[in-house]
Amino acid sequence: MNAFNRRRFLEGSAGVAATAALGAGAVWTPSAQAQTMAYKPEKGAKLRVLRWSRFVQGDIDAYMANVKKFTEATGVEVRVDNEGWEDVRPKAAVAANTGAGPDIILSTNDDANLYPEKLLDVTDLAEYLGKKYGGWYPSCEAYLKPDGKKWLGLPLGAAGSLMVYRKSQLEAAGFSSFPRDTASFLKLCQALKEKGTPCGFALGNATGDSGWTHWLIWAFGASIVDKNNKVIIDSPETIKALEFAKELYATFIPGTLSWLDPNNNKAFLDGQISLTNNGISIYYAAKNSPDPKLKEMSQDIYHSAFPIGPVGVPTEYHLFFNQMVMKYTKYPLAAKEFLRFMMEKEQFEPWLVGGGGYVAQPLRYYEGSAVWSSDPKNAPYRDSVKNLRPAGYAGKLGYASAGALGDFIVTNMGAEAASGSKTPKEAAERAQKRAERYYKV
Predict the structure, then answer these.
(1) What are the residues whose beta carbons fall under 8 Å from the beta carbon of 406, sequence distance 6 or more?
(2) Residue 69, class by beta-carbon neighbours within 10 Å (0-12 exposed, 13-18 middle, 19+ buried)?
(3) Which CATH number fits domain 162-316+392-438: 3.40.190.10, 2.30.42.10, 3.20.20.80, 3.20.70.20?
(4) 152, 363 in Cβ contact below 8 A?
(5) What is the DSSP string of 201-231?
(6) pLDDT values of the chain reduced to their tens digit, one per residue, 441 residues
């Protein structure tokens, strides 16, 4: 059992024990021992925050309402800039390397590992929040506390990646429920194509939605590296996963090789596809649309976990969000106070609810958030951070894992093999060489 899975098992066991002690249905409550922490912002402090653009309107509305509350409470003016996921990473890298730019950056996965020496240590804040709100999930530590000591940033949560499907079209294809294994999943996709209601999964360099390719290789027992960070992507397990990808791709709607994160949302809501992987944003958009046709569609939209492959265990990939304070900031205390304020229950809970389940919590306490019980279709996304595998599985996260992920090595390999531009073996060999440039011996 590798270190990450062992920690997750122990964390889960501890959670079960604690819940049993409190009684059935119990949830974490803020620790009575955790005193309120606060940082006194520097005189004249002003903050600039760079974050990814919203996929659901309630996210940004609630976030900006909290920003306003913070300014009213502290007098610190906060400017928030929004960029697409694909643009945040390069802008964050430029800021880190030039020593100028936003004070706080909300980015994805293990971007913090690309420039750890450029980030402000937030260990004191992370430990305070963890103690007060039931602890961080192990994946949070894997991404932002890679040395086991220092927190490079604060976890924000994750946009869950689940199967999003039209129930009526699944039933028309001869399935009464969503398949639980990859063999049956392929049969479903083939049946959907025959019915003229195909599926579609992003194979372009989509920061979030191309993550299904990580699920794919893990489901067949493959990974980029082993527990010692030795590159092993050119393996029999990978070849089997890529052969499956080629069969699956034959059922896709045309154009998925160039899909970025917005494309499958548009295709699904347009009625072009009946199945894709996505966050809750498709359902959220349909449910809250003024268009009666989309409102009606929302009643037919359901969510399910990814099917389990030959490896025999769930292999969940979800888009992890971090909050990094740049070391060059002139106002480190104001920046840490901003993050503390945004993560406290009075602000974080309304933000979770406002997002309608788009972001799953990184702290145990928020498992009891009203957003997960207000609509049963939200509930499958609740444990996304709890259950996710970090993108650098099964190795130790760091510069190499962040670089390999940012270079879309797994996604590109999947696209090459699925489309037939390379054989599965050729695609795996190219991925091996690309990964070895990051994981230098």
Answers:
(1) 89, 111, 114
(2) middle
(3) 3.40.190.10
(4) no
(5) ---SS-TTGGGHHHHHHHHTT--SB-TT--B
(6) 444 443 443 344 333 333 333 333 333 345 544 568 899 999 999 999 999 987 889 999 999 999 999 999 999 999 999 998 778 989 999 999 999 999 999 999 989 999 999 999 999 999 999 999 999 999 999 999 999 999 999 999 999 999 999 999 999 999 999 999 999 999 999 999 999 999 999 999 999 999 999 999 999 999 999 999 999 999 999 999 999 999 999 999 999 999 999 999 999 999 999 999 999 999 999 999 999 999 999 999 999 999 999 999 999 999 999 999 999 999 999 999 999 999 999 999 999 999 999 999 999 999 999 999 999 999 999 999 999 999 999 999 999 999 999 999 999 999 999 999 999 999 999 999 999 999 985
The reported pTM is 0.89
* Location of each CATH 3.40.190.10 domain in the chain: 3-25+42-160+318-381, 162-316+392-438
- C-alpha neighbours within 13 Å on the C-beta side of residue 232: 17
Per-residue tokens: 423: 């054989």
The CATH number corresponding to 3-25+42-160+318-381 among 3.20.20.70, 3.30.420.130, 3.40.190.10, 3.40.800.20 equals 3.40.190.10
β-pair type (104-108, 46-52): parallel
Q: Give dist(CA 220, CA 218) in Å, integer.
A: 5
- Asked if residue 50 lies in contact with residue 101, where contact means CB atoms within 8 angstroms, the answer is yes
CB-CB contact of 56 with 358 (8 Å) = yes
Instruction: Please provide the distance, in angstroms rounded to a whole number, between the alpha carbons at the two ends of the chain.
Output: 24
DSSP conformational letter for 27? -
Q: Are 132 and 31 in contact (CB under 8 A)?
A: yes
- 324: phi then psi, degrees, rounded to nearest 5: -110, 135
Do residues 338 and 127 make contact, with C-beta atoms less than 8 angstroms apart? no
Tokens standing for residue 398: 């760091």
Phi, psi of 64 (to 5 degrees): -70, -30
Q: How far apart are CA 51 and CA 102, in angstroms?
A: 10
- Taking the C-alpha atoms of residue 235 and residue 221, their distance in angstroms, rounded to an integer, is 10
